[in-house]
Amino acid sequence: xxxxxxxxxxxxxxxxxxxxxxxxxxxxxxxxxxxxxxxxxxxxxxxxxxxxxxxxxxxxxxxxxxxxxxxxxxxxxxxxxxxxxxxxxxxxxxxxxxxxxxxxxxxxxxxxxxxxxxxxxxxxxxxxxxxxxxxxxxxxxxxxxxxxxxxxxxxxxxxxxxxxxxxxxxxxxxxxxxxxxxxxxxxxxxxxxxxxxxxxxxxxxxxxxxxxxxxxxxxxxxxxxxxxxxxxxxxxxxxxxxxxxxxxxxxxxxxxxxxxxxxxxxxxxxxxxxxxxxxxxxxxxxxxxxxxxxxxxxxxxxxxxxxxxxxxxxxxxxxxxxxxxxxxxxxxxxxxxxxxxxxxxxxxxxxx
Length: 352
Fold this sequence. Notes:
Elements: H1 3-27, E1 38-41, E2 44-47, E3 50-53, H2 55-70, H3 72-95, E4 119-120, E5 126-127, H4 132-135, H5 147-156, H6 160-176, H7 189-192, H8 204-211, H9 222-230, H10 232-238, H11 248-252, H12 258-266, H13 269-276, H14 297-306, H15 327-342
Antiparallel strand pairs: 1-2, 2-3, 4-5
């Protein structure tokens, strides 16, 4: 993994995402200096003279209340990271084939310069690509997306952006069922701040796909490194000062490199297993495992007394006391899977 690529991309991405969600907030009448009132008229909510569907009113009110509690800049920072984090997670999943429908959401498997994917927008700008989920939208099965509506939007010829936003929100909601901690349902204020112009050639999504080559996404730890570089400018701003509560993550969080994670897991969970089963083939799979040092006879006797004669894999537990991206838990799962297989469990019976 070329960390310089991530280091160059992520700080700029943070600024771009904050700018994008701030512009969306302004579109709905929310700025640092002023909050426009909402006037509800029948099925319409009017904000700063612009009509919106009435459903927008409640979402805008939630956003307004959150800004009152946390402050405008803090909410924009949080919303920017929410969408950045979702796009990064989806990018990793689409490359590794983890999306159930099988289509890419942020990119295309064909050349991005394919003239057949060109699309004119109402403002005259031009996109030279369409993600697979838009190109093959009628074949994509996502909750709350009616095929008739998809076909209608595709046949319109100039509503791909609208279709894409609908599909992207539906994809996040589908992932909510598996990962609610990352993909909360996008039916409240976060949907309002989904950035605009996602199909433009200089969009946030296009930059993510273009600036980080696909080969850099092979290891899951890319997500942790992206986060560390994403907050690097914020860290530089607050480090060495009296840190406000909202700035504690930027000042204190560090991503743990993979070799350190392996060392920690292999010498705790792995070490416990090998203490009971010293001839386990697991030892040959743990490159960072360190054999216990030779001890005095009386110490050996005490260790033997506290070492269980057998272990039930289903009763093994592991605590990550500083869980961030879950990097340690992912490594622990892989090791536990090997332990289960060693004890004769079928892969389909191993807990997920």
